[in-house]
Amino acid sequence: MQISHALVFLCATMPLASGLRLSRKSEGQRKPHGEQRPVVMHMSPNRPGGNAYVMMWIAKKHLPEGIKLRDSAMTEEEEEAEIRAMEEEGYTSVRPRRAKLHQNMAEESLESKADSTWVDNGPEHLLKVSKELRQLGSKYPLVLLTNAPKLVEIKHNKTLQEQYPNVVIRELADDEWLKHECKMAEGHLTHFQKLSIFGLTDYDKLLWMDADVKAQKNMDSIFNEYDTKGGMQVWGQHDNWMCEKNGPKFKEFCSGMMLFTPKASTLQGMVDHARSVEFCWGDQRLISQFFGKGGHSKMLFPRSVITWGQCGAKKSMAAHNQQER
Known about the structure:
18% strand; single chain; Spore Coat Polysaccharide Biosynthesis Protein SpsA, Chain A; alpha/beta; 8 helices
């Protein structure tokens, strides 16, 4: 039985805890990890360049030897302290969304015959997304960053390549797996690897989509209409999961869909930043923090590009349907 983990990323912020205080390192202070090797993401000998969509699926049964995700999990007490801190600051959606994450993001068998959610068969779901993008008239490929054998097989099967002509399989090499540099919530343990998309320098611009983001219109125009400033700026989704139309939460960054220019220095910088904090909750907090300093910037897509499915996304290019998993 092949065990996998869907790469659906809960969009939530993580302010400092009050009440029960969790230890954090000051900015720039590094945790003692011993020898720290540079982050590696290999380039193709024939760099394709151009624009591409990108998604990810991690098969947990096929992690490289030595990768132990649970060693980087926050305890329930640590998670609860973070949740209370967010609630005290007015982020009322965090607790119900965390409960849903724990329910829906449990390990699922790829061989499961259950059909209640797409999580039961992630590789097929991502291939369905590739067909939907083609049907919408997209001219750009969909890069699938993965270690799942069912997806990797496409690289070696001409029949499958003809069936999915817009799919580019980007298999993760053993030396490309990122070492967790900060502790994450139980349901987010594969999220640190998401940072590696910022190192896919084979492409000029990438549009990341969480697995529960559904394209509703051709989104190719996004690549030209939104400026990434050569990698110094990232565009993301509004994190107004409760459908707020103003206030501080409406201004928060969600990594459910992102437009960016990949750069090796960006990936290395994010990993270095992770070494300076004790708890990072999920990928989103790290991305938001990194692009909020050092001359970088983060911008938010308008609702016409993407919004939450429960917030009225019929007219948007994409809907983030986190409630439907």
